[in-house]
C-alpha cells in the first residue's frame, strides 16, 4: 500500500464498535426469550464489575440484617454511685425505719389503752348494777318483814297488807317506777294494750273504761303496758 493511500485511510473517521444485543441477527426470537438470555448471560458472565452504588446498597442491607439477627440491646453506660450518695441513702433508710418503729409503738400503745378502757367500763357497769341491786333489795327488806308480820297477826290483815303495799309503792317510786293512768283516760297505744272493746254510751270512743292489769313506766320509759278495756260506739 502506498503512503498516499495509507494517509487517506488514516484521515477517514473510524466507525465505533457497537455491540448488538443478542438475537439481533435472529428476528424470529421473541422479546421474552431475548431478555431471559440476557439475564442468564449477565449472571454467568465473569469479569463484570458491579457498579459502586450497588455494592454500597448491598453492604447497608447486610449490616441491617446482621443487626436484626443479633438482637443485642444498645449498650448502656453503668450508673456510677459515689460513696457520699450511698451514705445519704443509708441515713434516709435508717430514719424511715425509726419513724416506722415509732408509729408501730404508738399504735400498740393506743390499742392497749383502748382495751384497758373497755375493761374498766365493763367492770364499772357491773359494779353499778350490783350496787343498784343491793340498794333495791335493802329497801325491799322492810316490805318483806311487813308481809311476814301480816301473816302472823290474827284477825283482819287488810290494814297490814295496805300498809305493806304503800311501803312497796314508795320504795319502787324512789327507783323511778310510776304506775300508768288508765281508767277514764284516752287510749294510748304506747302505754295501753287493748284486750277487748266494749260498747258504751257513757264514754267517748277509744276511752279506757276498765283496767285488767296495771301498767308501769321506769324513769319515763314504758316498762309494761296496762291491759285495758276500750269503749266502742255501738
Low-pLDDT regions: 15-19, 27-55, 64-69
Physical arrangement of strands within the biggest beta sheet: 1-4-5
The counted number of beta strands is 6
**CATH architecture descriptor of the domain at 87-175:** Alpha-Beta Complex
Number of helices: 5
Tell me the fraction of residues in β-strands, as a range.
Answer: 5-15%
Gyration radius, to the nearest Å?
Answer: 62 Å
Question: What keyword list fits this structure?
Answer:
alpha+beta; three-stranded mixed β-sheet; 234 residues
Short note summarizing the structure:
This protein starts with a helix and ends with a strand. The strands form two sheets. The chain has a three-stranded antiparallel beta sheet with strand order 1-4-5. A hairpin with a 2-residue loop joins β4 and β5 (221-224).
Notes on the structure:
The chain is of the alpha+beta class. Among the domains are: 87-175, Alpha-Beta Complex (Hemagglutinin Ectodomain, Chain B), CATH 3.90.20; 177-234, Head domain of nucleotide exchange factor GrpE (Nucleotide Exchange Factor Grpe, Chain A, domain 2, Roll). It is built from 5 helices and 6 strands; from the N terminus they run αααααββββββ. The protein has a 3-stranded antiparallel β-sheet with strand order 1-4-5. The chain has a 3-stranded mixed β-sheet with strand order 2-6-3, with no helix packed on it. A hairpin with a 2-residue loop joins strand 4 and strand 5. Mean pLDDT is 76; it is low at 15-19, 27-55 and 64-69.
